[in-house]
């Protein structure tokens, strides 16, 4: 975030939108949240088994694949935009940093909430801080997520400060936050750089998680390159996620469409997605697992869908300048990439997970789906609250004739 | 600090971090206990009486099953150990015939294999699972958070979970009766009860010798393999069989311990946090380099004050 956002020469400053809150969309979110709340009561009285199809053979399901793994991947816009605008010094992209930061902050908060539902002993979630297993990939992921979550909150302090300054000048809380922000400003770069480092660490390590189960993960996905592929796909999905969000926000809230930023942003995605595609194809050839591509099994079809619709198609689309310049087609391409990453995480953690001994199949139970949907709705609701009261998004620009 | 000197320091730090990087190639070492206890199951002796199941249930005070342990109709279905039973006997018809020409069944006891380098213990986020010097893979419920990564990691699909306990569910699996061994110096309950001495308890090295002797002395009785000798780096439960293990529900497994890949990766990347430190240094250098460049060319970003972070 910029310490001086109002000083951008030709961009428009982020403002608190102060739109009416109770729109039909928000009411739908509340309905999903209510359904999830009821399911959570069942979860915490009857156990995980009361609301899920998880079993001894399939201990990880929708919650790990979506709430945790996908949540982390789709929050990558936070550190990729921060790296681009602040570390790489491309300040023209400043306007997308704040919404991406907000998404990352909310995304990671809900990752932790998702974990609290998924782990059997939610109250013991603090234990890895004191009982550390340094051999465990999950331990490293957990520590990175824990620290990064706080880094994100710290990075968000200037936004809160600015919002309070406009809304409640002179209020004791405003003075406190302003004092914190003043002290924070000279050292904020440490948190921004640390945020990128922590992200690289755990985005990749999320991919290492399944490497301990070579006999259970389908060969189309099982590769020692999984950590690198996870890192690259998260980075590649970072800007598309920003594009999807910005387009959705500008459509539903009437804010600026930011096309003069999103179009050039998508050019980075060509390189990043192309790199990911090359690595993925190279990996298939190198391990020889391409032979199971046309098996016609659930796994091979899921893999083809993931790569075809989520990587190859949007890659080809983005190569065309016309696609990048049109708000609609750019949105579609970005949405395909985001969907591709969602599908990849679902594939790695659920579809590819085929333990050879137990034949118990897994598909998510209604309870799992309700809780996941409720969390997504709650995240969107929090986003809506934040942009209503805090300066995150930019108002529509006056069109100059 | 002057920016130029900061850049120099970044670079120096980066080179230093690379130079001090721990040598990763030879880093991984097995942490298997030197001469731990093990159990040898001679499947050619097992008659499928389920006495071991019963002894296990009593030893661990597990809930009584719906059908009694005398009821052998449960063998009509393949079963897996779960949160209420740490071991099960399964029956297989491999087409094996006895000297009289009659088809005979093979029975297989299933329980935690107590791997020498257990994937579950390597995966466990808090170290709630650990390999003891005695040989048991021990579960400490006081450290467990219920993430179930052990269940993901286990190649034998053994750890089970109390999915219907809302607040204090446990991971459930064979304990190798380690408490019994420690406090009463007794072999596991299943090994003690076995009426045909199909289960032999002892030091792993001694049991491997015993197994090899049986294979040598009765070559016609066994296939020439000790399952568990090398699978996933070796297990504390070893099996001898008359028919190929693949026909008895045993899966082929790599001889490499499963934690080797992930631990090598983690330790070569993150020992002393050298790679995060290196990345942090490089990115900080880049940050200050770009900020200085920006300060020198004010016309490019007019109004972008130096404190812009």
Structural notes for this entry:
The complex is a heterodimer of chains A (401) and B (309). Chain A has helices spanning 24-46, 48-51, 62-74, 77-87, 94-118, 127-130, 137-167, 172-184, 188-208, 226-253, 259-287, 298-319, 321-325, 327-351, 366-389, and strands at residues 14-15, 393-394. With 401 residues, chain A is mainly alpha-helical. In chain A, 69% of the residues lie in helices and 1% in strands. In chain A, helix 9 (188-208) packs across helix 10 (226-253) and helix 10 (226-253) runs antiparallel to helix 11 (259-287). Chain A has a two-stranded antiparallel sheet. Chain B folds into two domains: 3-27 and 273-295, no CATH class; 37-256, 2-Layer Sandwich (Alpha-Beta Plaits). Chain B is elongated. In chain B, a hairpin with a 5-residue loop joins strand 4 (129-131) and strand 5 (137-139). Chain B starts with a helix and ends in a 13-residue tail after the last helix. The longest helix of chain B has 23 residues, at 274-296. In chain B, the strands form four sheets. In chain B, strands 8-1-9 form a three-stranded mixed sheet. In chain B, strands 2-3 form a two-stranded antiparallel ribbon. In chain B, strands 4-5 form a two-stranded antiparallel sheet. Chains A and B meet through helix 1, helix 2, helix 4, helix 7 and helix 9 of A and helix 3, helix 4, strand 6, helix 8 and helix 9 of B.
List the helices and strands and how they pair.
The complex is a heterodimer of chains A (401) and B (309).
Chain A: E1 14-15, H1 24-46, H2 48-51, H3 62-74, H4 77-87, H5 94-118, H6 127-130, H7 137-167, H8 172-184, H9 188-208, H10 226-253, H11 259-287, H12 298-319, H13 321-325, H14 327-351, H15 366-389, E2 393-394
Chain B: H1 3-19, E1 37-42, H2 51-59, E2 88-92, E3 106-110, H3 119-123, E4 129-131, E5 137-139, H4 149-153, E6 160-161, E7 171-172, H5 178-184, H6 189-193, E8 199-203, H7 204-217, E9 237-240, H8 259-270, H9 274-296
Parallel strand pairs in B: 1-9
Antiparallel strand pairs in B: 1-8, 2-3, 4-5, 6-7
Helix pairs in contact in B: 1-9
């Amino acid at each position: 975030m910029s310490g001086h956002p109002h000083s951008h020469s030709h961009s428009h400053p982020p403002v608190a939108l102060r739109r009416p809150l109770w729109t039909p969309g928000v009411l739908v979110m509340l309905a999903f949240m209510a359904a999830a709340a009821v399911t959570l009561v069942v979860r915490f009285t009857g156990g995980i088994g009361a609301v899920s199809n998880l079993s001894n053979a399939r201990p990880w399901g929708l919650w790990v694949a979506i709430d945790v793994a996908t949540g982390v991947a789709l929050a990558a816009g936070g550190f990729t935009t921060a790296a681009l605008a602040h570390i790489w010094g491309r300040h023209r992209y400043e306007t997308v940093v704040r919404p991406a930061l907000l998404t990352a902050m909310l995304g990671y908060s809900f990752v932790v909430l998702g974990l609290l539902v998924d782990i059997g002993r939610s109250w013991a979630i603090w234990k890895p801080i004191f009982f550390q297993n340094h051999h465990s990939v999950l331990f490293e992921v957990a520590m990175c997520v824990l620290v990064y979550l706080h880094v994100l909150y710290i990075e968000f302090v200037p936004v809160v400060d600015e919002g309070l300054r406009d809304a409640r000048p002179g209020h004791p809380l405003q003075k406190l936050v302003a004092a914190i922000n003043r002290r924070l400003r000279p050292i904020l770069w440490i948190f921004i750089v640390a945020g990128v480092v922590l992200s690289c660490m755990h985005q990749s390590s999320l991919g290492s998680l399944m490497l301990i189960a070579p006999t259970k993960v389908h060969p189309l996905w099982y590769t020692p390159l999984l950590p690198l592929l996870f890192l690259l796909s998260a980075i590649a999905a970072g800007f598309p996620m920003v594009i999807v969000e910005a387009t959705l926000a500008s459509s539903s809230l009437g804010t600026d469409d930011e096309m003069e930023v999103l179009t050039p942003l998508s050019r980075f995605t060509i390189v990043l997605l192309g790199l990911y595609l090359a690595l993925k194809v190279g990996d298939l050839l190198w391990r020889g697992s391409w032979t199971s591509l046309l098996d016609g099994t659930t796994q091979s079809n899921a893999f083809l869908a993931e790569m075809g619709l989520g990587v190859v198609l949007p890659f080809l689309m983005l190569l065309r300048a016309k696609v990048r310049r049109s708000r609609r087609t750019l949105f579609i391409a970005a949405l395909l990439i985001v969907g591709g990453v969602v599908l990849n995480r679902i594939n790695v953690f659920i579809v590819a997970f085929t333990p050879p001994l137990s034949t118990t199949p897994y598909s998510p139970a209604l309870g799992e789906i309700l809780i996941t949907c409720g969390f997504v709705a709650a995240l969107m609701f929090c986003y809506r609250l934040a942009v209503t009261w805090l300066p995150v998004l930019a108002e529509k620009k006056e069109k100059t004739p | 600090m002057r920016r130029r000197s900061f850049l120099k320091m970044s670079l120096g730090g980066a080179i230093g971090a690379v130079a001090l990087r721990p040598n990763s190639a030879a880093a991984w070492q097995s942490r298997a206990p030197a001469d731990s206890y093990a159990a040898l199951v001679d499947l050619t002796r097992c008659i499928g009486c389920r006495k071991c199941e019963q002894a296990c249930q009593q030893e661990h005070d597990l809930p009584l099953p719906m059908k009694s342990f005398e009821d052998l109709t449960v063998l009509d279905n393949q079963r897996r150990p779960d949160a209420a039973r740490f071991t099960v006997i399964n029956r297989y018809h491999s087409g094996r015939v006895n000297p009289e020409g009659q088809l005979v069944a093979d029975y297989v006891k299933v329980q935690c294999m107590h791997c020498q380098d257990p994937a579950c213990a390597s995966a466990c986020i808090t170290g709630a699972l650990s390999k003891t010097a005695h040989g048991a893979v021990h579960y400490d419920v006081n450290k467990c958070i219920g993430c179930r990564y052990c269940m993901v990691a286990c190649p034998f699909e053994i750890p089970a979970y109390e999915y219907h306990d809302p607040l204090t569910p446990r991971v459930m699996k064979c304990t190798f009766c380690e408490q019994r061994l420690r406090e009463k110096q007794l072999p596991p309950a299943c090994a003690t009860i076995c009426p045909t001495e199909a289960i032999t308890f002892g030091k792993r090295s001694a049991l491997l010798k015993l197994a090899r002797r049986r294979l040598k002395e009765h070559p016609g009785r066994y296939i020439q393999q000790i399952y568990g000798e090398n699978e996933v780096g070796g297990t504390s439960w070893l099996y001898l069989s008359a028919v190929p293990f693949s026909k008895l529900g045993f899966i082929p497994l790599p001889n490499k311990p499963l934690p080797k890949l992930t631990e090598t990766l983690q330790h070569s990347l993150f020992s002393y946090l050298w790679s995060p430190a290196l990345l942090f240094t490089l990115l900080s250098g880049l940050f200050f380099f770009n900020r200085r460049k920006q300060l020198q060319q004010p016309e490019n970003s007019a109004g972008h004050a130096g404190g812009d972070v």
